Each structure stands twice: as structure tokens, then as C-alpha cells.
Amino acid sequence: MIDQDRLLDRFRPLWAELAEIGRDPDTGGYLRYAWSAAELACRRWFVDQAARRDLTVSVDGNGNLWARWLPDGVDPATAAVVTGSHFDSVPHGGGYDGPLGVVSAFLAVDELRDQGFVPGRPITVAAFVEEEGSRFGVACLGSRLLTGGIAPRRALALRDRSGVSLAEAMAAAGADPAAAGPDPQRLAGIKAFVELHIEQGRALVDLDAPVGVASMIWPHGRWRLEVSGEGNHAGTTRMADRRDPMLTCAYAVLAADAEARRLGAHATVGRIEVRPNATNAIPVQVRSWLDARAADAATLAELVEAVVSRAHARSVADGTTVTVVAESASPPVEFDPGLARRLVDAASTATSDVPATTSAVPGSTPVPVLPTAAGHDAGILAGHVPTAMIFVRNPSGVSHAPAEAATDADCVAGIRSLAAVLAELAAR
Ligand code: HGY
Ligand code: MN
Ligand code: MN
Q: What distance, in Å, lies between the first and last C-alpha atoms of the chain?
């Protein structure tokens, strides 16, 4: 059995090394955008960690990082068990969403080596680029490019808020944009992919479990609503003469909330851009981004359709025009049930000595299997290789905000579970 205290002593300094990279001292949140200085620092950290473990680092044409443990005598052509996550964050996001999966992967390798475990196949640590889509607008951009989920031409033309394209950002970081695109050979070299991730919710808290396993990912997507009206003077323009796009946008936001509640779905508008964004001018255009998610594709489609049709109806009354562009879409993902079962068994054994802290939900299992409404690179890879996810308990349930956190003890329970899973999947 893995020694909890020894793992804690390993986890804390490694976590502290990464924790300061890209952290905003005012908010405590992270500003780690794909190909930005902060994320490049995380990538250097990754390469350093791999070197310390004699793992061979490779970078695919999309900028995803891979650090491989190839045991003596194992044929390099043998498909690898891969584990990892991402470094990038939402603006002022939490520190665990992504990095916990990469740190845990390196520490799981350490634990296996300490146990004298010698895999029968390579074990590879991975870090995917632009999982959040915070800079270029499309979620899981690195894993979508890898798997052919987005055309390189479209991806490379995506621009950030200051107008820099993905191609320009890659080139500025020394990567070759022309190399971006599907990598079937790399995919063929993956036997299974396991992503460890902080839970983005409170299910494990309510179930009194330190770790859980994912059953599925809700379908979800991002739609850009562009409302155009007539720019004019805030003071001298009579109310009856206005064509104010802010009204149509505000109505769409409230409609999204109402329709999501009606359908038991989730809808958020967290980003708005106003032109000219002046205090004393009626806007000429208001752009907003709808993040919509539901437990099934039909409900998601109904939600988006309802919001869009209500926005169009309102625009007639406002004398504005609305265009809607789907920027990023993720269909429902059902994880491999056989692999999920193996993860439950391995994690149950690995964490059997973790004491229950509160009264668990009657009938709950030590390692619950639960759905999530959060997207992940595992959701993209699941369409191509056997894939599973381990969740680590998040006491507050908060994510995509500075308050996101997990206890060290639960992070260690996650690492122990991941090490056990890797041992099982990579056994000789
Ligand atoms: O937005 C998401 O669902 C994920 O956290 N990237
Ligand atoms: Mn994530
Ligand atoms: Mn996230």
C-alpha cells in the first residue's frame, strides 16, 4: 500500500512549484492562456519534470506535450497507457483544473517506480494545449487538432481578443503552424487514456468519497450572438427612436436563464463585448457568448433553439438584427464502461484505507461513478481510444474561479488511484 505521508511530502513541493506560474496576485486566479508566457513557463516545467524522471519528451504538431516512460526491453512501437490533462486556464480560473492531472501523472509514475513496478508497455504523461478555449475560443483545441476534430486551416485562423491568430501565436513560441493537424500515428500509439481532474461540482462531497470515476460528459457548446443596432447619443436620442442592441442582448441573457431552468439544463453568458463600449453612447453592436449544456443532445438543441428564437423575436421589437454563430460544439460522451469499472476497482483498492469523513449517501459505493457537465480532453479522445476519467473531491464544488481547491489528502488519494490504474492497464 502506498504511504500517504510520503506521497503528501512529494505532492506539496511539486504543487507549490507550479502554483506560482501565471497566478494573478490580486485575484489569486490564473492567467494561463495557450502559447502565452505563463503557459510556456508551465511547458518548461513539464519538460524539466520529465527530464528529472528520464522520460522522453516529444511535442506533436499541435503543441501537445508527451513524456514517455519506456521500460527496458519494451518495444517502442508498443501502444502506451497515457495520462495527463492541460495547463491552460480560464481567465482568473482556479489552479487545479488541468494542472492537477499533470502533476498527479508525474507523481503516479514516481510511485510506480518506488513500488518497483515495471510496466509491460510505455506509460506516457501528456499535457494538451488550449483545453479551455480561453484564448482562441474553441475548447479542447489541441486534442481536437490531434484527432481531426477541427480543420487545421480553421484552427490556425482563430484569433484571440487582441487579434493574434493561433498560427501567429504558435510561430511566436517557436512552433511550426504548418505541422498542426491530425496525428493518426500518435493516436494509434495510445492503448488507453486516463485523465485525472478535480471534480467541478460537489457530487463527491455529498457522496463522501475522495475520488470518483466519470460515466459521461454532457453535450455542450458555445454560441456567439452578434446583435447590431444603431449607435447614437445616450442623452439626446429619444427612447422611441432607439435601436439598442444591448436590450436584445439583455433579453437573450434572461431568456437563456429562464429556458435552462425550464429544461433542467445549464446556460451561461459570462462574456460580452460592446462596441463602442462608451458610457454615453448607445452601442452599435453587442456580442455575447452563450455557454449551453444539457444532459442529452435533444434538450441542448431545444435550449439553444428557444434562446435564439426568443432573441430574434425581441430583435424585431428593438429594431436590431441578430446573428448566431456556433463556435464550439461537443456531443455527449459516454466513457468506456469496462474501463470505468476497472478504474473503480483499482481506485477502491488504492483508497480503501481513506476514512469516511461524513455520513455517506446510503448505498453509495466507495468510488462513485458520476456524470459531469464539464468538458475535457478525455471527452475528445474518448472518440478515438479507450478513455476514462478519475475525479478528485472538490470541497466547495467551485471551479473556473480562484476559490477552486482540493485538499492535499484527496489529491494524494487521486494519485494513489491513478498509480493503481496505470499499474493495472500497463501490467506485463
Ligand atoms: O468548460 C469546461 O467545461 C471545461 O472546464 N473546460
Ligand atoms: Mn479542465
Ligand atoms: Mn476548465
A: 20
Please give the angle made by the CA atoms of 14, 38 and 290, to the nearest 5 degrees.
Answer: 110
The answer, yes or no, to whether any atom of ligand 1 lies below 6 A from the CB of 375, is yes
- pLDDT tens digit sequence for 285-334: 999 999 999 999 999 999 999 999 999 999 999 999 999 999 999 999 99
Sheet of strand 266-275, all strands in order from the earlier edge strand to the far edge: 266-275, 285-293, 220-228, 321-330
Q: Which atom from ligand 1 is nearest to the alpha carbon of 133? A: 6
Q: How far is CA 179 from the centre of its chain?
A: 23
Q: Which three cell numbers stand for residue 32?
A: 494561463
By C-alpha distance, which of 196, 199, 5 is closest to 106? 196
Q: DSSP states of 274-341 as a string?
A: EES--TTEE-SEEEEEEEEE-SSHHHHHHHHHHHHHHHHHHHHHHT-EEEEEEEEEE--EE--HHHHH
Tell how many helices (H) and how many strands (E) occur in the chain.
13, 15
Closest CA to 7 of 369, 345, 391, 350: 350
Please give the distance, rounded to the nearest whole angstrom, from the Cα atom of residue 76 to the centre of ligand 3: 33
Contact 394, 404 (CB under 8 A): yes
pLDDT band at 353 (very low <50, low <70, confident <90, very high): confident
pTM as predicted: 0.96
Q: Enumerate residues with CB within 5 Å of ligand 3 (an ion).
A: 97
Q: What is the pLDDT of residues 26-35, one digit of tens each?
A: 999 999 999 9
| Distance, CA of 398 to CA of 90 (rounded, Å) | 13
- Grid cell in block for residue 305: 433553439
DSSP-assigned states of every residue in 32-76: --TTSHHHHHHHHHHHHHHHHTTPEEEE-TTS-EEEEE--TT--T
